[in-house]
Amino acid sequence: MIVIENVAVATVDASDSYHADGHVVVGDDGRIAAVGAGPAAEGEGRRVDGAGCLVTPGLINTHHHLYQWATRGLAVDETLFGWLKTLYPIWGRLDAEVVGAAAGAGLGWLALSGCTTSMDHHYVFPRDGGDVLEAEIEAARRIGLRFHPTRGSMDLGQKDGGLPPDNIVESTDEALSATEKAIDRWHDPSPGAMLQIAVAPCSPFSVTERLMSEAAELARRKGVRLHTHLAETDDEEDFCRERFGCTPTEYAERLGWLGDDVWLAHGVHLDDSAITKLGATGTGVAHCPSSNARLGAGAARVRELLDHQVPVGLGVDGSASQEASHLGEELRQALYTARTRGGPGALNAREALRLGTMGGARCLGRQDDLGSIEAGKLADLVLWRLDGLGHAGIDDRLAALVFGPAAPVELALVGGRPVVERGELVHADAVTLAREAVRAHRRLMERAT
Ligand SMILES: [Zn+2]
């Protein structure tokens, strides 16, 4: 049992309950036993003094490509399509060792940024690269994060009018059967699951219509969720209009890709009718404001999405299109992006925190167990330290967290188990992870030349 007390608590429950001086009690079953104002009842277990801190639900990362940690800092001034064309040939040489090291670094960094659950969208499976999905699952176990890797895929190479080179795409049948195998091997449907799989063909310009629609059938047959990139850039919109004669959202609708079991990465270029469709179908959006800014893709219409009841989560996106990859910082970036578009009323600190927690839980289908601090939910919690120089003098701790600089993580729990303590990973060493990431990067770059 762990008792966090003498602490500010932002619960993100349905009424956004906030306790300026409260407590959270974590039971031995890894779930939240109690939350409220004032001190906790006396009892056994570890007591954590939260003076100077704010406890929130653990942040949930709804879009990422962990392997990209091995190719950061390249093509830094390119558009999405230019950046992809530069990087595809390098990614074609990925293997399990590179992916394992990149995922270890990426997930360790996410944990230090206040993330307790991350998805990953992996869609490059070189023929002789070994089991790259297993490599990243092992990395997540090593760090201790709750993990939702998706089995991605690409089957539309250049010779068929797609963007990726032909040697890094799979055949449609290979992609579908490997995806089904990944679900059978790894997916845990239980409420406390540490590992769930989703089905994730990559994007309209790298996947055939057949793979998109059969992937949706597969996911629904297996009871798992669906994810893909959609409406990220103007180039993608042009591609869809030319090839399919419609917008990306109309294309998704045609293929059975709107629904409350689907969440889409980006959703930047959505017209009013697309936003209405997403809201009406309960289709989620992984909002990745820093990546969208880095690639100059545009700014998602988050206020309008929320007003139409679209589930919106936050994502850092791949580490090669958003080198910071810090989920805590995305709270502020999301707020700034919304306000740049819509003025100061477009998003507030409470709403930004909701995107990063409950919004993410809804995207991943985990809203019954994650995303808020309520008795009975899984104890995925972050205790942010807000009494250092960076936040000195900001009395409102939620404002300090969202408007201030990235806050140090005093304690992060996943299912009640510590994964970060006093700004350090509990189960891995950050220096070792960095060294392994450098080695993986060099190995990949040497092979690529
Ligand atoms: Zn992405």
TrEMBL record:
The lineage of its organism: Bacteria, Bacillati, Actinomycetota, Actinomycetes, Micromonosporales. This is 8-oxoguanine deaminase. Keywords: Hydrolase. It holds the Pfam family Amidohydro_1. Its EC number is 3.5.4.32. Residues 54-404 form the Amidohydrolase-related domain. PANTHER family: AMIDOHYDROLASE-RELATED DOMAIN-CONTAINING PROTEIN, AMINOHYDROLASE SSNA-RELATED. GO terms for molecular function: 8-oxoguanine deaminase activity.
